[in-house]
């Protein structure tokens, strides 16, 4: 196993899920109705593994590339991803473009072109539970960004039409309602304490919203040729928490870090030559997982260790 893997589909979303498996994990495939297609293979020592959820596919056309949400194993001891998914949910013609993993590890909210669905997780097995979120489309159109807060009590949704909303979970009452947050909302993420929500648009600066007050957002400007594409707060209990923003530049994909106390830029580091299409921070704050897009309609997933912080904050290897 290696920490950089291709799984045969373009990847648009990545997330970490807490391990609920004991003993050995079996590979399990399903279709969108929850019917298993096949089960083969075993991976030992599942109790010590981390899991990464990935989503993507070839879309509605006849590319031959399936649309799916799947789980892969990451072995932190060997710094390696599994060669094959341990679970896969086939979504047929629906492309799972964005998703949010519930912090409790029990399910995933997926955004499809015409609806949102909630996929409930049972061990490493995934199944569509209900059309719980179908009504979201009537509120904000197609969802291009989804995120739970750290406690799992709130869900943020950013629409293609630029609307940004925060709902309590699972009641779905509106907490925050911004009709013109961006021209189109690309990504969102909550700070670990749930006070702040960062949002990205297709262009321009990132914005940080105080969910607990009516203050206007703080703008985080880009530099030179940067185009912001994904955002994640660091996790854990450190006093020196940072905000990570993945950016596309002429040199490739880079990670920009920001101080969450002053909202000042700490630095930027190019990490890959390709475009970062999605990334996520592990629940313990020690690992970054990202997916890379390519012109060949294939993508790779990679996990990297976040180095110990120095005086200026957390560093990337």
From TrEMBL:
Residues 23-44 are annotated as: Disordered. One of its GO terms (molecular function) is guanyl-nucleotide exchange factor activity. Coiled coil: none annotated. WD repeats lie at residues 185-219. Pfam families: WD40. Keywords: Endoplasmic reticulum, ER-Golgi transport, Membrane, Protein transport, Repeat, Transmembrane, Transmembrane helix, Transport, WD repeat. One of its GO terms (cellular component) is endoplasmic reticulum membrane. It comes from the Eukaryota. It is found in: Endoplasmic reticulum membrane. It is a single-pass membrane protein. GO terms for biological process: endoplasmic reticulum to Golgi vesicle-mediated transport; protein transport; regulation of COPII vesicle coating. This is Uncharacterized protein. It comes from Fagus sylvatica (Beechnut).
